[in-house]
Every structure is written in C-alpha cells, then in structure tokens.
Amino acid sequence: MNNSVQRQPANSHEPSHVLKAETRNLSFFYGDKAALREVNLPVHARRATALIGPSGCGKSTLLRCFNRMHDLYPGHRYQGEIRLYPDDINLLAPETDPILVRSRIGMVFQKPNPFPKSVFENVAYGLRLRGIRQTAELEARVERALRDAALWDEVKDRLKDSAYALSGGQQQRLCIARALAVEPELLLFDEPTSALDPLATASIEELLRNLKVHVTTLIVTHNLQQAARVAEFTAFMYLGELVEFGPTEVLFNAPSQKQTEDYLAGRFG
Amino acid sequence: MNNSVQRQPANSHEPSHVLKAETRNLSFFYGDKAALREVNLPVHARRATALIGPSGCGKSTLLRCFNRMHDLYPGHRYQGEIRLYPDDINLLAPETDPILVRSRIGMVFQKPNPFPKSVFENVAYGLRLRGIRQTAELEARVERALRDAALWDEVKDRLKDSAYALSGGQQQRLCIARALAVEPELLLFDEPTSALDPLATASIEELLRNLKVHVTTLIVTHNLQQAARVAEFTAFMYLGELVEFGPTEVLFNAPSQKQTEDYLAGRFG
Amino acid sequence: MTNPATIGRLGDRAAARIRWARQLERGFVLGAWALLGLLAVVFLSLFAGVLQTGWERLQPDFFLTFASRRAAQAGILAAWVGTLVVMAVTAAVALPLGVAAGVYLEEYARPGRLTTLIEVNIVNLAGVPSIVYGLLALGLFVRLLGLGASILTAGLTLGLLILPIVVVATREAIRTVPQSIREASYAVGATRWQTVWQHVLPAALPGILTGIIIGLARAIGETAPLVTIGAVTFIAFLPPAPFSPEAPFLSFDWLWAPFTALPIVTFDWTSRPNPAFRPNAAAAALVLTFLTAVMNATAVWLRYRLRRQQLW
Amino acid sequence: MPKRQRSWRNWWETGIEWLLAGAALVAVLTTLGIAAVLIGESLPFFRVVSWRSFLTDTQWTPLFAEPRFGIGVLLSGTITSSAVALAVAIPCGTWLALYLSEFATGRFRESVKPILELLAGVPTVVFGYFALYTVTPLLQKLWPALPGFNLLSAGLVMGVMIVPYVASLSEDALRAVPMSLREGAYALGATRLQAAWQVVLPAAFSGVAASYVLGVSRAIGETMIVAIAAGQQPRLTFNPLEPAATVTTYIVQVSKGDVPYGSLGYRTIFAAALVLFILTLVFNLAADWVRRRQRVQGCVL
Amino acid sequence: PAGRGFPVIRVDGSSTVYPLAEAVAEEFQRNYPGVRVTIGVSGTGGGMKKFCRGETDLATASRPIAASEREACRQAGLAYYELPIAMDAIVVVTHPGNVQVSAMTLDELRRIWAPEAQGRIRRWSQVNPAWGDRPLNLYGAGTDSGTFDYFTEVVNGKARASRGDYMASEDDNVLVQGIAGDPNALGYFGFDIYYENRDRLRPVPIARAAGQPPVTPTVETILSGAYAPLARPLFIYVNARSLERPEVADFVHFWLEHGAALADEVHCVPLPPEAYAAVRQHLANGRVGSVFTHRPAVAVSIQDLLTWPAAL
Lengths: 269, 269, 312, 301, 312
Ligand SMILES: Nc1ncnc2c1ncn2[C@@H]1O[C@H](COP(=O)(O)OP(=O)(O)OP(=O)(O)O)[C@@H](O)[C@H]1O
Ligand SMILES: Nc1ncnc2c1ncn2[C@@H]1O[C@H](COP(=O)(O)OP(=O)(O)OP(=O)(O)O)[C@@H](O)[C@H]1O
Ligand SMILES: [Mg+2]
Ligand SMILES: [Mg+2]
Ligand SMILES: O=P([O-])([O-])[O-]
Prior knowledge:
By secondary structure, chain A is of the alpha/beta class. Helices cover 34% and strands 24% of the residues of chain A. Chain C: It is found in: Cell membrane.
C-alpha cells in the first residue's frame, strides 16, 4: 500500500470539484429537539476530515446524517441538504434511496460490531448483498479488503472462525474491512478507537492514514491528538453548530474562534 | 459557602497525620484477572486527589475498593490494605463491616443514579438509613445537603417531584447531595461529569472545588484539564499499576515517568 | 461482625439502626428459606402422591392401548398421539404468527395508536382466562366455521392461547440483539428485511424457541378450552396418517379428525365414579407432567446455552 | 442499482411489512373475535334476562324450571377463591423474588428458577386433585367443621400454583433494575434488604405489578382446581370455608354437561364468560394504563 | 364434519348411557377392527340436537325424544329408530353411617327438594323428627343432566323445578367424594355411580307413599318395576339412513346382541332377553319413530313401551 501520499492542506473555500460531499444548511431534529443547526461542512475528496467537540455537541448526529442512519428511527427529521459529488445528488432528498446511499457510504462504529458469523462471512456480507455469488470473486475481494484493513496476515488462517474470537482491535479492523470490501466512496468513522487499547489504537490510526489514498474519510474523535495525527481538515462543533472548520494545523494552532480556543485548551468538555 | 480555601500543594511524603486514607500494596482481582497490582496511594485529608489514566487501567476498580463496592459481586478479591485515618483501621479487613465503611465513605457515580423517589426522599434516604425520623431534622439536613450541592435554589419548590423530572446535571448534583447529606469523611467520584454537558460539568466542577473545605475527595476523570482544575494531587495509573503520584502541578508539568509524559502528551489513551 | 464502636463516628442511633437492619435482613433470609422449604414439601408431596397412585400403571401397555371401560386395560395411546398432533398444529399456528407479530412490533411498528392497540391487546390476551378461548373456539371454529371438535380446532384454539407468550418471548429475544448489529447491517446497505432475516432473527432464535416451548408447555396441560369445544369423547383410534403410499401421498384429513388428549383423559378418568380409574388418571397426569417437564427443561437448557454463547 | 430493481425491492419490503403487520393484528382480531362471540351469543340471553337482574339477583339457577340469573353468586366464588390464592401468591412470590434476585448466589438462582418454571407447568388438573384429596383432609384435621369442598383449599392450592409465576416474573423485573441503582443505595450504607425493598422494588414496580396482574388473571381464570375442589354449588358467599361455584366452574360444568346448543341455558355460559372477559379486560387495561403513565413519568428504567 | 375422509360411526348424547356406549364401542372395535367409533357426551338434549341435524349416526338418550326434537327431525326429513337398550335408576344415598334414615317416602323427598324448600329446610328434623336435629347437606346430579330432569319431574312434579342451594355436580366423583365424607349428606344420582361406590354409600329405600313398603334399588327391583318411579329406560336413536351403512348396522346389531352382558358389567340394568328380541324385531320390521308421541315418559314399564305403536 502506498504510504507516500503527501498531505496537501487544502483551502476550505476550494471549488467544489475536489469536494466529495458537502452539507448545506443541514439541521437535524430528534423529535422536537434540534441536534444540528444550519451546518455547512465541506468534505474534501481523498482526505480525512475530523469532527471534534465536547460530548453531546452533535458529532455523531452529523456523521450519521451522511448515510441516512437516522431514517431507521421514527421521529427523526432532516432539514437542508447533503450533496454528494461528483454526481451532485442530495443524499437527504426523499427520492434518494437510503439503501443506495448506504451502499456507497460506509461506516465504522465506536464499538466493534462484527456479525455473529465467521471472519470471512463478515467481510463478504456486503458483497453478497450486492449479488456477488461466485466464490472466487468473493474470496479475492474479501482478501483485498482484509489486506487493506491490515488484518490479512493475522486472520488468513482463521477465516472460518467466529469473528468474536478476535481481539477488540482486530474486530475493529474487521469492521473496517467489512466497510472497505464494498469499495465505498466515503467512509464514516464514529470514535473508532475509543473502545480500544493504545496498541490497537495505533494500528487503526496507521490504517486511517493509509486509507486516504482511495477513500474519503470523515472521523469523529474525542482525542484531539488523534485528530491532529490523522486528519487534514478538522471541524469543531459546539451545541449542534459548526463553530469552525479548517485545515487541521490552522485550526489547532491558530483557531479563529474563542470557543475553539477554549475547547482546545481544555477549559470545557 | 467559603470559596476562598487556598490550594496548598502538599508533599506526597508528608507524615500520615494529614492523610485521610492510604492504600498499602493493594492488589485486586476480578476472579483470576488482576485489575490492580500493588498500589500504594496516599489520600490527603481535605484535598482532592485525581486518578487519571487510559481506559481500563483500573481507576474505577481502585476507587470502588475504598467503599468495598466489590464485595457485592462474587469472585472479587482484595489483597493488601486500605487504611483509614485517624482511626487507623483497615477498610479491607474481613472483620470490618462493609456497611459501616459505606456509611462513612460516600460515592458518586459516572451516570446519575437517583432513586425512583422524590427529590426530598432521595436526599433523605441515607439519613433514614441512620435512623433519623424527625421531620424537622430531616428537612434541615436535606436542605443543607442540597445547598452544599448547589441545587437548593433550583429544586426547593420541587422537593416532592420525582427525581427523574430533573435534568441530567441536576440529577448528578442530587446524587452528590445525597452523598453529602450523611456527612461522609471521604467522597469518591467516578467520572462524575462524563455523562454531562459542558454547563452542567462546570457547575459540578465548581462544587468539587468548594467541597474540599470539609470533605476529602477522590476523583476519577478522563479529562486531564478537569484533573488540573479541581485536584491538588493527581495519580496516574496504567495497566493496573500506579505509575506516578504527586501534586497536580508537578505531575502535569514535570512528570518523572516516561509513560506519564506520553499519556499527558496524548500519545495514547 | 465488628462492634460499630471500633469504626466510630457514626453515633449510637445509626449503629443501633444498622444492627436492626442487619437482624431484619437475617429474618428475611430465614423466611425465604422456610418458604422455599415449604414449597418444596408441597410439591414433593404432590408428586409423591401422584407417583404413588399412578406408578403401577406406567407399563408399556399403558402407552400402546386405547381407552377402555376396564381400568386395568385402559391406555393412553389415542391421548398421547392426540396431544402430540394437537401440539404440532398449535406450534404451526403460534410460531409463525407470534414471531411475525413480535418482529413487526420490534422492528417495524412506529409508535402510534395502532401499535399501542396491538400491544395492549397482547398484554390483555395474556390475561384472558383459557376457558374464554374455549368459548371463542366453540362459537367461531366449532359452530360458525363448522370445524367440529377436531384436531384443527384444538390446535387453532391453543395456538391463539399461547400467541401472547410467543409474541412476548420473540420481542424480548429481539430486544437482546444489540442495535449495533442492526446498524452494522444497514451500514453496508442491507434492507430492513435483510437485516431482520439475516441478522436479527438468527441471533434471536434461541430466545424465540425458548418462548415457543414454554408456550407449548403451557398449552399441553390446558384442559378447560378442550372441554368447552366438546372434545370429551371416546376415541379408540388414531387420526389418519398424513402420508399415504398412493398419490397424492400427503393428506390433511387428520386435521379434521376427532381426537382426545392427555389432560382430557386425565380429567375424564378422575371424574369417573369407579375408583379403579384413579391410578390411570394419576399415571396419565404423570405422563403429562413429564412431558411438560421435558419441554421446560429444554427451554431452560436453551436459555442457558444462549446465555453462555452470548457474544455481545 | 437500477431503478427497476429498487421499485421491486420496495414492493417486496412493503409486502413483508404488511404481512407482519397482519400477523400482529391477529392479536386484535382475537380480542374482537372473543368479544364478538361472547356478545353475539349472550345478546339473546340479555333479551330474556335483564341486566339488572343479572347483576343484582342473589341466586344462580339458570337451568331450573324457574331460572334465576344472579351472576353475583358466581362472582362471589371467583372473588373469594382468587382472594385466598392471591393472599398466598403475592406475598410469597414477592418474597421469593426478592430473595432470588438480591440475595441468592447466581448458581442457586439459576437452579431454582427453572424448577419454579417447571412447577408453573404442572397441569392444573393435578393441582385440583391435590387440593381435594390431600389439602382438604389436612385442613379438616385443623378445622373439623370444614366441608369436603371449600374455597379455602382450592384457593390455597391455586395460590401455590401461582407463586412460581409471580416469583419468576417479579424476579425478572427486579433483576432488570440497573446495578447502578443498587450501588447508589449500598454506597449510602444500606443493607441488601434495605436496597432491595426501598430502591429495587419501587424501581421494578411496573414489572412486579405486571406479574401480580398476571397472577390475578390466572386466579380469576383458573378452572380445573376450583371445579374439582371448591364444590360446584352456586352460593352467594365470601366465606372461604364454604363450598361455592365460580364463573369458570359453571362454564366448564355446563360445557361438559348436556345443555343443548342454542338454548337459554347454553347462552348463560357466554354471558358468564362475558363477565369474566370484561373483568380481566378492565383489570389488565387498568394495569397497562398505570404502567404507561409511569413510563411517561420516566420512572421506568 | 368430524372424520372427513374416513368412515366413522358417530355417536353422541347422554352421559348416563356413556359408560354403556363406551363398553359397546370398545368391544365392537375389537371385533370389527378398522371401524372407528366416536362417542361424545353432549347430554341427551345436545346429542339429540346434533342427531336431528344429521351430524351423528346414533344418539344415546336417557329420556324419550322430546316433541321439539321430533319436529326438528321431521323438518330435516330424518327417519329414526327408537331402541330401548337398558334401564337406569336414580338412587338416593346417604353417608354409610347415617343409620337413622332407614327409608323415605316420595313425599318426604319432595319436601326436601321442592323449590319452596330453598333456604328453609336445612335440618333433617324439619322433614322427619326421627332423623335427628342436624344439618341437612344436599348433593345432586348436575343441573344440566338428564338425571336432574328426571328426578325433578318425578319428585317435584315438574322437570327442572328444584331448590338451588345444594351441591350440584356434573362430576360424579365429586358427588361421591362429598357424600362419602359428610355424615349429614343426602344426595341422588345414577344407579351405576352408586353401584361402583356401594361400600362407601348407603342407598335409601324409597316408598311410593306413606304406608307402602319402601323399596331398595337393586337390579331385580328396577327390572320388576317395583322401584318405579325412580327407574327409567335408556334409549338409542338410530338414523335410518345411516343404518344402510353396513358398519352402522353391524354396530347396532352388535349392541343388541351383547348389550345385556355389557350393561351388567357397567352397572346399568339390562333389559330382559325377550325385550332385546322384540327390539331386533322392530328393526327388522322397519318400525321407525317413537312410541312417546302421545304418552307420558315417566314411570313406564319396559313391557308396555315395547308394545306401544310408534310414529315419527
Ligand atoms: N436518539 C436520540 N434522541 C434524542 N436526542 C438524542 C438522541 N441521540 C442523541 N441525542 C442528543 O443529541 C445531541 C447530540 O448527540 P450526539 O450523540 O450527536 O453527540 P456527540 O457529539 O456524538 O457526543 P459524544 O461525544 O458523547 O458521542 C445530544 O444532546 C444528545 O443528547
Ligand atoms: N466486573 C469485571 N469483571 C472482570 N473484569 C473487569 C470487571 N470490571 C472491570 N474489569 C476489567 O478490569 C480492568 C480495569 O477496569 P476499570 O473499570 O477499573 O478501568 P477504568 O480505568 O475505570 O476504565 P474507564 O476509564 O473505561 O472507566 C479492565 O481491564 C476491565 O476490563
Ligand atoms: Mg457520539
Ligand atoms: Mg471507569
Ligand atoms: O346425559 P344425560 O343422560 O344426563 O342426559
């Protein structure tokens, strides 16, 4: 895998042809409760964007808008748009099929959540859903996904074992492989390392840095150092609003907002 | 309430007459699994001591040893001592009645856990357990506890309402009031603000700073800034061991151990 | 226990109170033991009585002969076959309906009037006396639909009777499947039904099976609804076989066959004036109790395995 | 994915949802079916017998030449036997549930609960004869004037039969209370019993109450035990030492007997069952309402 | 439609005749394997109802067909044979220790059981001072049985006219158990029930009127007519169309041939041999219909009813 991709801190007001997605005046409501307010967030193609902010500020909520996860629960309501490029479709439009959205936008969760199936079947599941039946093709793609998730060497002899026999860090990488197998255009991570030990965390961070070669990623994290380590862009959220967005180095070293500065200094959260 | 108590960073090798408690070679086992290894932690009287460390390092386990909470579950085993001063008794001795230990050492949990009773009855519960029946005395002490917990003004007209009608931050302060009402000598906090929003967190931190006038506190937190803000002493734990202990400022600014330094720099956890 | 004085600082009142609370606690535990002992004695004497009366009749013949007016020759062949067949129909009715309803309520239903209505109905049906189900069957299946006092009628009746049990068990089993599994499935692009069918139901299966077995164990001993549909009959033959050597090979005539069942013969024999039938009744009751015990034990075992295998 | 595939998939998904909803609606249909059958069959009855006399008459002799239809007579038997049963089942069941969930070790609980569930599965016919042939003679030793058929012994045995239900279901509810609440109480110096009684039980109230409601429903609806051991004598009494008939007894007695379909006597069983149904319906609805209201108040965990 | 798809002889009706019907069916099936007989216990009225709708082949009855039932059969165009097959008697019994009560007149019985007695006649001495001043606890056959109908008609002069404050049970065993355990009990039920428990119960000899000799119920007194009016004939009604089916004809003839021996065995009182011959003759002659079209059904002798003319 190519590790030499350069970091090119991009200007947040770049023209949209390098954007992978973008929220436009996105608001979100849990029933009556507004959890997001008029969020305008650009997501740059083949870059990692980190979402930071104190607990409850709406990071997960925002992330889950991208693959219409909120559709699963009654009473949840979107307002505004999320545009996906280059097709330039609105992910939130009622006529957009959420299943299709989720087929193109992968997600990795806070706690590893493998299916109670074998390692192989976990990764193959998304492929099967897409109608892929031939064993040869399945095997090839499962292997590629596991390699991309830096898990292949550890599990290549245990593909038939239950996924629950893996360690926490391996399970999380398995979930990443599962998401990668279907070649998503955008990959969402919700605090992917917060349930893991330091070593597993390091291996996932390494993976995140490598992924950017072909995937665009959006990562929620509560670990500021992690954001600094893996993301080119960072967005700081507070109370459901996007307070500040910018290249990570700029945001961390010269935040333009007082709230961002206070938060980075640990004065709250 | 007296806000002007000065911070007097104390030397960790002070003679024990200003210690409220002290663990001596404390080890702890969940069944076969060692969660604490030979911990020697001093707890200074009328000071706040913070326990920090990555997730799973044993912070909660250590805290819960102080009020024998582990006794409730089968298979849990202590080794070593926790001495409580000035009586100089071993809290962990088999002949020490855990009910009496808990009557003297209060605890506040990560998530607010009010009882399904009214606000008043929540605070009065510990008093009733101690045989206090007179309404006048109960009312006086409930009011004092609620005032100490900075909740009185918000709930004085809602004493009869269910505790569940309060907001999360109020519930947590109610739990603190419940613990304060019985005038504990030592108060244990397990990440008391991690489930709360920034505003509620700020009010609890304020409260923590004020409490130290008459109570000794031991606080588990994952928020380093919080430790810096509220605690005179900080202990850093890692993999079940106490890596470093010292006055907060010393530990944060000039850690003596490499692990502490790495952790504080966000290199893991 | 420590003298409270050694730990000091609590005051006499608190110490006295704590001592009192401890004593109360000891009394409570002793009381619980006494209660358990009493229950054990009651049930042991119940079983001992039945066993003593019925033991001698538990010979192979008893299972292989039909009812007879001569107590010593009367057997339960028709009854146990009837019970098994009726249970099969009951399961065939309750399992799909109950699981589907449970899945609907947990995975599909949006909170609203309809959902509340269904939920209230299920809660309520769980409390409706079984004899009322018997009258429903009498009015609806026996009379209106003209199914007679047949295996089909009994199966439908008992199936409806245990439906709430299956629904509740299904819902509970589904609820133990963590949301994270569903979200994982949706996140790779599965539809709702794919998620339910491929992840939720397999994971909930042991819990669902436990529920249906417990339901059947309840149904197997039900006497009153069968009495009301008019199943108290002399039956000295088995229902026609579902398979035949000639075309069409499969036949459902047995569904319409008259039947008898273990609780019915038990009740019939116990209410006979001739005391010679008492051992028969006891023996039939033993068989019935044994079947119930086997079912419950299966359910317990399933649940135990389920808990051990619990991965999340 | 092409559009056609999507619409086919949507049809399939919708179809399944409707199918599942249909299955769920069977519960509603069953209730409606019960109501329809009971009301339909008892309407002609109430055309002959007035509601007033049905509810206020003090005699129940529907098959006599001069029939009297005072359902109160049967209800008195039902209420008395249920009261005896619940007086046994609720305290004992709660006690056991508290003990099992808060005191017993995991292994002990895991071995006792299946046994309880097994006992709950003993066919009630067996309990009936146990009441008649074992319990009543025993009670007669203590109380020689006790008649051979009486509500007391039927009620006691019914109570014993219901104990496992109440204990098992309450225990489930108690154990569902989050550990954090117990720890809150223990941290204040409560004993196990104090935490159990003052914190866990109130927190589990709705689940425990549900087990009581089920116990009540079982007691009211229990048929074979009372039919066998309580005597089948319709008699207006609240004295458990007397024999009496219950609503269920009467229904099973008539179903077993010779009343021809369509006659007034035949319809009485539907009228009686209607009363039984309304009774349990009201009871369960009330309990459900309490539960829902509590949930709205946020006390349910 | 019970037994769809395979031949069944469907019998339903009287609970009094049930033990006899069961015995006949059992023996018949032993001799004619492959023929299936079901016997329901819907009671005489219930059985007649089904019979007149053509749902059953045979109805068993503890009383003659009623006018309304004849009408129903006529409406359905259904011809039937009325075949007396045994005698039954109602026995008045007490606790075996109740020796004070040596005999009773019909009038005394009436005073005890009349509707007016309800709540008033509560002690033995109120009826006859010689019986002792002690509570009078009454037990009787279930109020929906033919036994109850017949007893009230004979004793109180009107069918179903009775006091209500007594222990009425459909479950014979419950009655036996009650009376055998209660020194102050007085009860009535069928002869077979008494006979099965004759060592636990004491029959009360009945006198038709004061001054007449009391008669103890025995097989002899019942057959001879001496025990009248508390003795009565039992019938089967056979659907004439069903009789064309060979298995039904076999069954009826089997009954007439072996009925006497079997009745003896189940403690019904068999008819004299010449009566069975007469019945067989009626069958052969195709004499359909009932003999009770214009005659009372109480206290008839078997000889009389065999000679009366029959009509549909
Ligand atoms: N299902 C829900 N229903 C109602 N409110 C919700 C729901 N989920 C989250 N919220 C609220 O929405 C707000 C945003 O929640 P969200 O989970 O997005 O925060 P977050 O930034 O991800 O926090 P954390 O760091 O704790 O994960 C919070 O106030 C939360 O309480
Ligand atoms: N009941 C238990 N049984 C077995 N192991 C346990 C139990 N509770 C905790 N542990 C283990 O003991 C270790 C210490 O856990 P502890 O909860 O004390 O960590 P912590 O420092 O409080 O972490 P966190 O910040 O996540 O709360 C962990 O490895 C944990 O997995
Ligand atoms: Mg989140
Ligand atoms: Mg912790
Ligand atoms: O069943 P019966 O003989 O009482 O009509």
